[in-house]
Amino acid sequence: MDEEYDVIVLGTGLKECILSGLLSVDGLKVLHMDRNDYYGGESTSLNLIQLWKRFRGSDKPPAHLGSSRDYNVDMIPKFIMANGALVRVLIHTDVTKYLYFKAVDGSFVYNKGKIHKVPATDMEALKSPLMGIFEKRRARKFFIYVQDYNEDDPKTHEGMDLTRVTTRELIAKYGLDDNTVDFIGHALALHRDDRYLHEPALDTVKRIKLYSESLARFAGGSPYIYPLYGLGELPQAFARLSAVYGGTYMLNKPECKVEFDEEGKVIGVTSEGETAKCKKVVCDPSYLPNKVRKVGKVARAIAIMSHPIQNTNDSHSAQVILPQKQLGRKSDMYLFCCSYSHNVAPKGKFIAFVSTEAETDHPETELKPGIDLLGPVDEIFFETYDRYEPVNEPSLDNCFISTSYDATTHFESTVVDVLNMYTLITGKVLDLNVDLSAASAAEE
């Protein structure tokens, strides 16, 4: 191990694995270590026995739940936007050859006590029971504006500079009511709270366009895709990629200690008495706890069920977003459901997650609005975990630390963190102008 590397990556969470892959493809010499004996870190995938061990001590899972190895329960479950940044990264690195994706059946929003399909186009807006007849017409006009909007063609801007006009001002121009704004902002643009209303509208318009373009990519009912066998496949696919380009992987390395020189710059990592030298370290917050601060907490429930989430048109995989306003909360709540159709559970079994940014210390009570929508559950587990973000100055210490995973059930915010870190580490922006059809073979 006593060699010198350009970068040492600590932790095999998804963010760290993507970066390890990208940096290896760039020709850097990468060593990737993890204190655990499995891939994935916080974002690992567990079989039923591992799930039981984690949440119930040493219990044996009940036989009626089926075979343990038929379960691949993701600890940080997130759907992938079909045209989003993560798919572009997968294609850019050619990782798609190691993965098989399948479209997600449904995308829903909670409104006035009921679950509704998210309308994403002018035609769907006209059919949606979310709005009355006059509101539908106004929404249709708004959707047509968004669909036609082209940043480089001022003729499509209708006299508005969306880098200056706020989202609230744009929406006011179309006279949309608060109810409509709620599902557009949270279920289409995927904002996590209402701050976006006071920010320039361009970001929101781009997010809605991404949603509808992703939806159009499949004939399915959602803009999302998900790997067969769950997200645990992703870190391993990037690990393979890194190895192809000469990266070295070491699992089960206890006490990875980051070493610094007298100026506070990183010089290497020590484990089991051996030190590997390096110029830069990339890691998750758990490896450098004195360089991060706690910024919040996620509360979540994991349920095993024998049916889909109720009122989701029998979707075998679905996301339901519960906007904060509908629940009188400060941030949204998310339902995620996947099943044997994505090979994450035995036939007839469904895995559902309910997650939110915690506002109390009582996940069972706090998550109740989401859990009530699931219907009867066979088993349910609760937990909370803290969220951290880096407070160091990477230009001074050469440590590049990822932020903890948030409560959302989609990947867009995760990839933003990865791309920002890539730019900080390499000084360049990753080119994501790729041929999106390259992933289509894997999506069948």
From TrEMBL:
Q: Which GO terms describe its molecular function?
A: GTPase activator activity; Rab GDP-dissociation inhibitor activity
Q: Which purpose does this protein serve, as stated in its record?
A: Regulates the GDP/GTP exchange reaction of most RAB proteins by inhibiting the dissociation of GDP from them, and the subsequent binding of GTP.
Q: Which GO terms describe its biological process?
A: protein transport; small GTPase-mediated signal transduction; vesicle-mediated transport
Alphabetic keyword roster: GTPase activation
Q: State the signal peptide span.
A: none
Q: Which one Pfam family would you cite for this protein?
A: GDI
What Gene3D superfamilies has UniProt attached to this entry? FAD/NAD(P)-binding domain (3.50.50.60), Guanine Nucleotide Dissociation Inhibitor, domain 1 (1.10.405.10), Guanine Nucleotide Dissociation Inhibitor, domain 2 (3.30.519.10)
Q: Name one GO cellular component term.
A: apoplast
Among InterPro entries, the record links this protein to:
FAD/NAD-bd_sf, GDP_dissociation_inhibitor, RabGDI
The protein in question is named Guanosine nucleotide diphosphate dissociation inhibitor
**Superkingdom of the organism of origin:** Eukaryota
The UniProt record lists the keyword Cell membrane = no
The record's family statement is: Belongs to the Rab GDI family.
